[in-house]
């Protein structure tokens, strides 16, 4: 399961942690074969776009960690918080839209086996 935790300070998103995979390797091998996991791919593209946008468009240097099944954006500080909000809130809305689509297609109970979005006030 993919777990996404958005860390918020008031109305601002200041950090996020993403861990896990949408389906296990065994499920991929048996049910899907060579196809890829769309849920995991969607979250990967959306989250990595935030980092790229911060670096290449906003010209800020976010601190982050990335490895297989994990991406963490360290808490932003100062002006970086304000500059990044359009990207981060678009990320949040995109995740919510993805979750809503999965809920419609598979039901909330089944969707929760694959992806969960948590907001945490810090």
UniProtKB/TrEMBL annotation:
Pfam families: Peptidase_Prp (PF04327). This is Ribosomal processing cysteine protease Prp. Belongs to the Prp family. It comes from the Bacteria. GO terms for biological process: proteolysis; ribosome biogenesis. Transmembrane segments: none annotated. CDD domains: Prp-like. Keywords: Hydrolase, Protease, Ribosome biogenesis, Thiol protease. One of its GO terms (molecular function) is cysteine-type peptidase activity.
